[in-house]
């Protein structure tokens, strides 16, 4: 009987862990981890589409830049199958321009476009090699990408999953191991307080006019407020550190 109850309780815990976002550290430790992250100096963030960075990690990238890091953003696809609310003749080029405008607002040092087809990013050696080349060229000490193994339900984009998996492999296979932080994760253990750059984040997200029509979009910062509130924290971008930044 008791064994049965324990088994059932264990099952419930497992279901809860699988379905819900669940922090694995205390809020204080999550914030300390976010502060430690700021000692990185050569950052490469790898995303699938224009506006991914602005939605999930632009506050952190901006803060890293202000803390003295070189910040390079790699955008795998131009997102040419997304909405075209500005009626652009060439949506791929329009979205690159929007990404550059957003990057200027958040202070990225460089943006690299890999020009992969939208909704067809696949896990292959070619993508691995391209990402490895960037990481080696930049001598990255911090790599940030999607959590390709535990994407946050219900939204699961195959490009995000594929890219996250390849970028993770590329980072972990390097001889000189960079720190690796995953976003869009169900198991965050790092929180970066983005309060001081929240207004810039809203402006940068709104720069993706072809996707949102250019209205003032607070969506990503609302999500950051909700994420922070969940753990008793200020508005925060959350990450799962696979390998922590060394201070
Ligand atoms: Zn995306």
Instruction: Name the CATH superfamily classification.
Output: LmbE-like
CATH architectural category: 3-Layer(aba) Sandwich
Number of helices: 10
Instruction: State the CATH class.
Output: Alpha Beta
Total strands: the figure is 7
Q: Give the averaged pLDDT, no decimals.
A: 90
> How many whole angstroms does the radius of gyration measure?
18 Å
> Can you give the helix content as a percent range?
40-55%
CATH topology descriptor: Rossmann fold
- Biggest sheet, spatial arrangement of strands: 3-2-1-4-5-7-6
Structural class: alpha/beta
- Which ranges are low-confidence, i.e. pLDDT below 50, for 5 or more consecutive residues? 10-19
Ends: how far apart? 51 Å
Largest sheet: 7 strands, mixed
Basic shape:
globular
Strand content: 15-25%
What is the ordering of alpha helices and beta strands? HHEHHEHEHEHEEHHHE
Small molecules bound in the structure, each named once = zinc ion
Number of domains: 1
Give me a quick take on this structure:
The protein is α/β, with parallel strands linked by helices and 247 residues long. 46% of the residues lie in helices and 17% in strands. The protein has one domain: Rossmann fold (3-Layer(aba) Sandwich), CATH 3.40.50.
